[in-house]
Structure formats: structure tokens, C-alpha cells
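=== RUN LOG ===
request id: a7f3
mode: sequence -> structure
chains: 1
length: 75
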Amino acid sequence: MESRLDKLRPGQKGVVVSIDGDGKVKRRLFDMGLTPDAEVMLRKVAPLGDPIEVTLRGYELSLRKAEAHAVVLEV
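=== RESULT ===
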């Protein structure tokens, strides 16, 4: 089942399928390690919902919800 990174709840995992968006945003997310077949786990969400923190390739990464929405996952 496909979902978006911003739709996960803390503790849920998914595998990156693709990145939507324009070239600049897509390139930035790729450079941060969000590439196809990478496993991502949502660690926590800020009290007001933005930003979110994910664990990816052994490190923690904070993303804005708009950026996380561009990440398509297989959950």
C-alpha cells in the first residue's frame, strides 16, 4: 500500500518508492538520502505538526511537512 511520508504516525516505517516535486526539491531530498528503496521510520512530530523527524540510513533527519508530502512510500 502506498502512502506519503507526512501521513505516517510515529513509529511507523516505510520504504521510499519515489519523490514527487520539482527538480530543486527532488534533488535536495535525494542528496539527504531519500532515494528509492531506502527504509524510513517516523520518529516524532513537533507539537504543532511541523517539522517531523525521521530515521534514515542510521541518522535522524528533520523535514518540513511540505517536503515530506513529496516522498511516496510503500508501507
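=== NOTES ===
Helices lie at 23-31, 65-69.
The chain has a mean pLDDT of 92.
=== END ===
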